[in-house]
Known about the structure:
The chain is mostly helical and 122 residues long. The chain has helices at residues 9-20, 24-36, 43-50, 56-69, 92-104, 106-120; strands at 41-42, 73-77, 83-87. The protein has one domain: Arc Repressor Mutant, subunit A (Orthogonal Bundle), CATH 1.10.10. Helices cover 61% and strands 10% of the residues. Strands 1-3-2 form a three-stranded antiparallel β-sheet.
Amino acid sequence: MSEESIITTEEMYDLLIGFASLSELNRKILLCLAHIYPRAVSGVQLTRLIGYSGKAKSLYRGVIQRLTEEQLILRDKLTSKLHSLRINHHHPIAKTLITITAKHGQKLREMYENLLRTDENG
């Protein structure tokens, strides 16, 4: 096991406290993005992956904006209307979450990848 994949109890505590302060939707988004890291997705893809019933536009106005301001996710503007979203692997909480999901989240990662393939193929 490499040193990078070792999570300290302090990091785990910070992750738990950080997650406790987030809404269910925020947690779903971060978990999804951590599982598919380093891949980025559009807002529409993200809404489908997390089962969000609203439109991507409403997600951007509130939740994505807050997660971006808190530097938990990165939002890359590809065109005036298309943005890509990915978890911020430099943020301490997100980094811990990525480490955990990479080691223990293979089944969920495969499910997300299958959904993305299905989405891309029509």
